[in-house]
Amino acid sequence: MQQTRTMELGTGLFALLGIGALFFLTTQTTGNNDFDAAETFEIQARFDNIGSLKKRAPVSISGVTIGRVTSVDYDRESLEAVVTMVIDSHYDQIPDDTDASILTAGLLGSQYVGLQAGGSEFYLEDGSEILFTQSAIVLENIIGKFLIGGPPDGEEE
Amino acid sequence: MFRDLYATFYHFLRTFGAMCLFFLRLLQHTPSVLFKRFPLVAYQVYNAGALSIVIIMVSGLFVGGVLGLQAYSNLERFNAEDTTGIFAGFALIKEIGPVITALLFAGRAGTAIASEIGLMKATDQLSAMEMMAVNPLRYVAVPRFLGGVISMPLLTAIFTSIGLLGSHLVAVELLGVDVGAYWQQLQSALDMEDVMEGIYKSIVFGIIASLLAVWEGYNSVPTAEGVGRATTRTVVITAIAVLVFDFMITAWVL
C-alpha cells in the first residue's frame, strides 16, 4: 500500500513536471516574433538591393510588427529583387503611397522591412505593390566609401 | 588478417540484424501491451522516469549554469553579453539537453533495466515464464522499453527547462545581464522548429537508449560476470549510438 502510494505520487510528479516543462519550452522560449494572423493580405515591393533579407523577416510600421516576408525573388526582366509579404488584415488602412525600406535591427541584428506611412487617401489592398522603396544599406559599401574617402555627398555617383 | 576482419564484420552484421529483429518484435507487441497491460508500463515509467528526476534536475541546473558562465565571459569581449540567452538557449534546446539527458538516462535507467533483465535471465526467471506459456518479451521487455520511450522526452524537457533556469540564474542574477534582454533575445532567436528539433531528438534517443538497455539485458550471458558486462556495454554502446545519431540528425535537419 505504502509503496503503491509512493509510486503513484512519484509518477504523478514526474508527468506533471515533464508536461509542464514541455509546455514551458514550446510557449515561453519561442515566439514573440511569431506572427500568426488569421486573415492576411499580400503585397509586393521591388528593391534594387535587399541586403540579407530573408523569408520570415518581420514587416513593421512605426516599430509594430504587422506582417512577415513570405518570399524573396529575383525578377529577371526588371533586374530587381521582388519581396512578397503578408500583412495582417486588421491593418488594412495603410496609405498606398507608403514607402518601404530595408532596415537592420540594431548594429548586428537581422534585417526587416520597415514601412513609413504616406499621406494618400487610398489604401494598400491584396495584390498591390509598394512603389517607393529604399534598398538595404550594405555596411561594406559604407566602410569602403569611408576608407577611400570619397566626397560625403556622394558626388561621384 | 583478412579472416579476422571478415569474422568481425560478420559478427557485427549478425548482431545488428538480430537487434533489428528484436526491435521489430518489441514493436509488434507494443500495441497490445500498451492497451491491455498499461499498469506494467506505468510502473516502468516510474522506474525509468520518476526515479531519474533528481539526477536530471541537478545536472540540468549546473549544465545551464556553466553554459551561462562560458557564454557570458566570451560574449562580454564583444559587448554582446545580452545574447547570452541565445547562446544558452540554442545549445540547451537543440543539442545539450537531448544528448546529456540520454547519457544520464543510460547511466541511471539503462543500467537498471539491463541488470534487472540480466539477473532475471541468470536466475532462470525468463525460462520459468516461458514454461508457463507466458511470453517474457511481452511481460518483461516491452513494458521496460515503452517506459523508457515515454520517459525520455519528458526528462529532456525537464532537463532543458531547468538548464535555462540555471543559465538565467548565473547570467541574470549573478553576472548582471538584463533580464528583459536575456529572455527577449532568446525568444526572438528561437523558432518553434528549433524546439521541435530537440523534442524529435529526445524521442529518437529514448528509443535508442531503451532498446539497447533491453537488448543487452535480454542477451546477456546468464552469469554474474555476464550481467556485469551487459550493464557496462549498455552505457558504452548507448553513449556511442546517441552521439552518432545526434550528428546524423543535426546534419539531416540543417
Task: Describe the overall structure.
The complex is a heterodimer of chains A (157) and B (254). Chain A is α/β, with parallel strands linked by helices and 157 residues long. Chain A folds into two domains: 1-30; 40-144, no CATH class. In chain A, 24% of the residues lie in helices and 32% in strands. Chain A has two helices and eight strands; from the N terminus they run H-E-E-E-E-E-E-E-E-H. In chain A, strands 7-1-4-3-2-6-5-8 form an eight-stranded mixed β-sheet, with no helix packed on it. Chain B has 254 residues and is mostly helical. Chain B has one domain (38-253). Chain B is 87% helix and 0% strand. Chain B has helices at residues 2-36, 38-48, 53-75, 84-122, 125-131, 136-174, 179-189, 192-218, 224-253. In chain B, helix 2 (38-48) packs parallel to helix 6 (136-174). Chain B is elongated. The relative contact order of chain B is 0.16. The mean pLDDT of chain B is 91. The chains are: A alpha/beta (157), B mainly alpha (254). The A-B interface holds A 7, 10-11, 13-15, 17-22, 24-26, 28-34, 108 and B 42-43, 45-46, 49-51, 53, 80, 89, 93, 151, 153-155, 157-158, 160-162, 164, 184, 186-188, 190-192, 194-195, 198-199.
Q: What would a concise description of this structure say?
A:
The complex is a heterodimer of chains A (157) and B (254). With 157 residues, chain A is an alpha/beta fold.
Question: In terms of topology, how is this protein built?
Answer:
The complex is a heterodimer of chains A (157) and B (254).
Chain A: H1 2-28, E1 40-47, E2 58-61, E3 64-75, E4 80-88, E5 99-104, E6 111-116, E7 129-130, E8 132-134, H2 139-148
Parallel strand pairs in A: 1-7, 2-6, 5-8
Antiparallel strand pairs in A: 1-4, 2-3, 3-4, 5-6
Chain B: H1 2-36, H2 38-48, H3 53-75, H4 84-122, H5 125-131, H6 136-174, H7 179-189, H8 192-218, H9 224-253
Helix pairs in contact in B: 1-6, 2-6, 3-4, 3-6, 4-6, 4-7, 4-8, 4-9, 6-8, 8-9
